[in-house]
Amino acid sequence: MSEDSTTLGELLVREELVSLSTLQDATEEMRRTGESLHDVLSRIGDVNPEMIQALMSRTYGIPTVDEQSFDQVEESAIRELPMELCEKHGVFPLSIQGDSLIIAVSDPTNIYAMDDLKFLTGYSVEMVVSTEGAIQRAFTRFRGLIEGDEIRDEIDGFVRGLEDVEYEVDTADDVDVYDLERQSQETPIVRVVNLFLIDAIMRGVSDIHIEPGEDSLRVRYRLDGVLQEVRRLSSRWAAPVISRIKVMSQLDITERRRPQDGRIKLKFGGDRECAFRVSVAPFHHGEKIVLRLLDASNLQVDMTKLGFDPDELVKFQTAIHQPFGMVLVVGPTGSGKTTTLYSALTELNKVTENISTAEDPIEFDLPNINQMQMREEVNLNFAQALRSFLRQDPDIIMVGEIRDFETVEIAVKAAQTGRLVLSTLHTNDAPSTITRLTHMGVEAFLVADTVSMIVAQRLVRRTCSQCREPHMYDKGVCLEAGMSEEEYENASTMKGGENSCHHCNGTGLRGRVAVYEILEITDHMREAILGGFSGRELKMIAVREGMRTLRQSALAKFAQGLTTLEEVLRVTRAD
Are 455 and 327 in contact (CB under 8 A)? Predict the structure, then answer.
């Protein structure tokens, strides 16, 4: 370490990026804490990682890569090298080009690393310079690709072994609590449940469905919005598996006739904390469990990365930065509304603002924001929460969902009296939200006066970055879907999954991106609202004023190669 750090230190002093005394202080701090020189200088000096990256590139004539380049990492490159060796040397494999392995490094002077990589892979090694932080984040992001394979292999072997173990299954309503507790704590059950939870986290699953049938226990994952079956166990494992999850969720394992809700918290991968929201419900063949994964590391609160086009982003940011009024985000369950609202709150979260949220449930903790969990058992609902917020000197209020007239009435009052109110509704598109509000009992003049923007959204699955390739879709089908002749001719459409791809399991789709329909309440729109126009008429006016519909927004993503036509047709309806 000292040899490499001296070389870097000499370069920094020679380029007058740090003084000799600062370097000496940093070297002493490095010895004391065990940190790298990069980290110490970033903390105590005036040198940031990008300055070190530029210096290394300039000195050694090696090109740089930014953090977005890690989005295009090739799976084949990762599998060429042991992750432990890469972490030891602080390098990360990006791609294979011919007989060359492209490696991201933060320290190009580490010739020992290059020698090791050449010897292990047989490739010549070409370096590109990145920051140390970007490389470390890549390890966190991609480690699951390798470890996930190992976990799934272990599950396969473990489940096969379970078939030889006998369990007596008690299907009666009156059960022996001690027997259930004993079964739920036995090593095979603990192991298999833990493996399923870890596997789900590795894959980026949103929900786990554990469903007892007549002769099997089915396990399904919801990945990128679509359910897929991953395992079937013998039905004799239903009772102990479900009891184990109840124990972990601190639920009553003897109660089989009523629904129950709980929560599991666990630490994963060192400092990474995850939680599962657990719902248990009784069905004909037994209790079904659905676990919703709440992984803060997957929460994207940078609104520039959600899927807004540049012009849409400007409109949305302008609306949420208004001092008062109401901004509504609408769509079905699972369409990403909460993520959009959390991104807005993150941007608005300043020391000068008092922000309060009413949520059911609180999905993620937001630093320095006052979040309130709704509790129906003590009559703490959205309306009660809003009343209390108005006595708390609020600047910004977020209501998880507007469900009834009482809630919307108080929200409108708050927006009228100098507060910014953010909330969601379950409506199909932006214009129909206006008619929904009036049908709930809100006077048209109040809607026109308080609502400043309505954002409808959906999530479409992305084409897989590892296996996608240009694909020409049938022109007639594209035009029928809503594309114009010009859009079709200029499109760069893509499709994946033609070959077996581990990254997307051969589906050609991995990850999701949001598509938006943004309705600005202009003067013309206010007149139409006051005139009692229908939802269809309001939509026609909005389109004439430049609103892009959900279908049009999805087709734009399709034309850019970000999604497929099949996804567009699955998620959006024709205009």
Answer: yes
Our CA angle for 459, 461, 463, nearest 5°, is 145
User: Domain 165-296 is in which class?
Assistant: alpha beta
Cα separations (Å) of 208 from 95, 220, 230, 241, 469?
Answer: 33, 6, 10, 13, 31
- Rounded Cα distance between 45 and 234, Å, is 61
Ranking 195-204, 261-270, 294-303, 370-379 by mean pLDDT, the lowest is: 261-270
For 324-381, the pLDDT digits (tens) are: 999 999 999 999 999 999 999 999 999 999 999 999 989 889 999 999 999 988 999 9
The arrangement of strands across the sheet holding 91-97 comes to 91-97, 100-105, 124-129
pLDDT bucket at 296, cuts 50 / 70 / 90: confident
d(CA 372, CA 359): 6
Count Cβ neighbours within 10 Å for each residue of 334-368 and write b for 16 or more, e otherwise: ebbbbbbbbbbbebbeeeeeebbbbbbeebbebee
d(Cα 51, Cα 57) in Å, to the nearest integer?
Answer: 10
Pick the CATH number of 2-137 from 1.20.1050.10, 3.40.720.10, 3.40.50.300, 3.30.300.160: 3.30.300.160
Residue 208 host element (H or E): strand 207-212
∠ CA 156-157-158 to the nearest 5 degrees? Answer: 95
Domain 303-458+512-548 listed as CATH 3.40.50.300: yes
- The rounded distance, in Å, linking the Cα atoms of 553 and 551 is 5
HEC letters along 322-348: CCCEEEEEECCCCCCHHHHHHHHHHHH
Under 8 Å CB-to-CB from 256, ≥6 apart: which residues? 173, 175, 282, 286, 287
Confidence category of residue 150, pLDDT binned at 50, 70, 90? low
C-alpha distance across the termini of the chain, in Å: 62
249-274 residue pLDDT tens: 999 988 999 999 999 988 765 567 78
pLDDT of residue 186: 54
* Token duo for residue 138: 């890549």
